[in-house]
Structures are given as structure tokens and as C-alpha cells.
Design brief:
11 strands; 8 helices; alpha+beta; 4-stranded antiparallel sheet; 5-stranded mixed sheet; elongated
Length: about 300
């Protein structure tokens, strides 16, 4: 089952967040299809890109020609993630001198991007805009119906991700480190959590889930939090993301249909449903043009919050 607010209303469709992107990365490493019913495949890791094609050069950086002309000959050394970016670490493959040239192919799925690995000759879906042929007869295909996704070829990942905040599931994301991050912040919590320069990888779904766990109103000002509330928010962020990963993320439209975290949402998309803690009906407001869900009893704000409209 896909959360109604994700599946049925175009204005509500969310982009994959840290748990969804991390799950996709793990599936690519393991040769697992992103959708049930599709065949398994050899992992792209250790294989050489023999050809690159695109019909949407506007999504390519530094350019479509750079992608198609420079990529062939590079070997995929590893597949990782930074924030919501999928990162393919490339080496010079069979080029000489070996390992003298390293590049990074980075893909941001945005709202409708999807990666599949299929055998050459498999009919291409309508919205395939990038194809990376591999030396084993398979192709890595990037589909994007809305054409919001981006593909980067860079020599340093920091060219793309240099301004991102810390990874919230890494060991370095301690409570002490989080206190230092939030100490000089004064804005509302929901927009702050969505700010990728503050913490990387959190989007609309997991911001709502983290705030519910921490019992904090989405429009509570960061500068007004007591030390125990900062600790609760730190725990809430990590717990919500870990729970999402445990369930392989939430099903996001056709982009990533296999997660089941939507069946375990505490608050996101639960408008009118009873809160799991106190049974009060969950409310939905709009904060910064984003649908925002909270329990009006567990996540009290006091006076009607400015900037919200129900």
C-alpha cells in the first residue's frame, strides 16, 4: 500500500529521501531490481562503462557531451550515497596509466528519477533519458518522467555536495555535534530540517516523523529548545531514518514502489487519524509550501503558530 498523499495527488508526490536513496544504492550493489517482477542482474560494481547516451542534455553537468564523450572507459569502483545523491566512484578502468584518473558520476533522482539495470536489447521505457552501457552486456538506465533529475560527472564530489550538512546516521552525528549545529539557529524546526545544508538527506516525510517522535511542533523555533528537547530531536531524527531504512523506505509513486515504510508512518499522511500516543486526530497544515503533519496535543505550540495555514 502506498500512502494516499504520495500516490494519488500530484501536488503531494514526494522525492526519495535518505532511506529510499540508501535502499536503492544497496539494491544496485547487490544486483536487486528496484521493482518486484523485474529480473536480477550482476552488480555494476567493477564493470566498465563502454558507452553513454542521453536525449536530455539539459540535465547533465557539465554538459551532455561531457557525459557521453568522457564516461566510456571508466570502471565503476563503488556505489555510495551522500545526502540524496547516488555516487558512482569511477576509475580509469583499462586506461593507461591505471588509477591515474578518478571521476564521480553523481545522480540526483529528484521527484521522478529511477535507476534500472537491464540487459542490452530490453525495450527502453518511455522516459529513459540516460543510458550507461556496461562491458557485461547490461545497461544502467536513468528514467525521469518529470525531467527534474540531474546527472553530474565531476573530479571531486564536493563540487556537487560540498555545502551539504552532516550525514545523520553516521557515527560522527553525535548529540554533542548536533547541539553545535543547532546552537545558532533560530528558525522554525520544519524548514530547518528540510535545509540540506543543516543536515543531509531529510525531506518532508522524515522531518514530520522525526518531529512527532520528539514531541515538537513543526513551527517551534529552534532557538527556544531546552537541552532535553534538543536531545529528543536528535534521537527522533536518527530513529525515524533508521525505521525507514528497516522497511526499505517508503513507496514513492512508480519511482521506488517497493518500500513499505508508508505502512508504518506515525504522522505523515495520517490527517484525521488518531495519534498513536494520545489518540488525538492528526492535523495537517502548510509550512513553506509543504504539507506538514503533527499531533496538536503531543506537539503543542501554544498560541496559533505564525506562518501556518490549516
Amino acid at each position: 500500500m502506498v500512502c494516499t498523499e504520495i500516490r494519488n495527488q500530484k501536488s503531494k508526490i514526494e522525492m526519495p529521501e535518505l532511506p529510499e536513496v540508501e535502499t536503492i544504492v544497496r539494491k544496485l550493489r547487490n544486483g536487486e531490481p528496484v521493482e518486484r517482477g523485474l529480473p536480477t542482474y550482476p552488480t555494476p560494481v567493477r564493470h566498465v562503462i563502454t558507452r553513454a547516451w542521453t536525449d536530455w542534455p539539459r540535465a547533465a553537468f557539465p554538459s551532455g557531451d561531457a557525459i557521453t564523450q568522457r564516461l566510456p572507459g571508466y570502471r565503476i569502483q563503488s556505489i555510495g550515497r551522500r545526502g540524496k545523491y547516488i555516487v558512482f566512484t569511477l576509475s580509469s578502468g583499462h586506461r593507461v596509466p591505471a588509477c591515474a584518473d578518478q571521476r564521480y558520476l553523481m545522480i540526483h533522482l529528484k521527484m521522478s528519477g529511477r535507476l534500472d539495470v537491464l540487459q542490452e536489447g530490453t525495450p527502453r521505457a518511455k522516459h529513459v533519458h540516460f543510458v550507461f552501457a556496461l562491458d557485461n552486456g547490461y545497461e544502467l538506465r536513468f528514467s525521469d518522467a518529470r525531467k527534474f533529475g540531474r546527472v553530474y560527472l565531476v573530479s571531486d564530489p564536493a563540487e556537487v555536495t560540498g555545502r551539504l550538512g552532516p550525514e545523520p546516521l553516521e557515527a560522527a552525528f553525535t548529540l554533542k555535534a548536533f547541539r553545535g549545529l543547532i546552537a545558532n539557529k533560530s528558525g522554525a524546526l520544519k524548514p530547518l530540517l528540510l535545509d540540506q545544508t543543516f543536515v543531509a538527506g531529510i525531506g518532508n516525510i522524515y522531518a514530520d516523523e522525526a518531529l512527532w517522535r520528539a514531541k515538537l511542533h513543526p513551527l517551534r523555533r529552534a532557538g527556544t529548545l531546552a537541552p532535553d528537547q534538543v536531545a529528543a530531536l536528535h534521537r527522533g531524527i536518527r530513529a525515524a531514518l533508521k525505521d525507514g531504512l528497516r522497511h526499505q523506505g517508503a513507496a514513492i509513486d512508480w519511482v521506488y514502489p517497493e518500500g513499505n515504510y508508508q505502512d508504518h508512518f506515525r504522522v505523515y499522511g495520517q490527517t484525521g487519524q488518531p495519534c498513536r500516543r494520545c489518540r488525538t486526530a492528526i492535523r495537517r497544515i502548510v509550512v513553506g509550501q509543504r504539507g506538514t503533519h503533527f499531533c496538536p496535543r503531543c506537539q503543542r505550540q501554544g498560541r496559533p503558530p505564525r506562518g501556518a495555514r490549516g
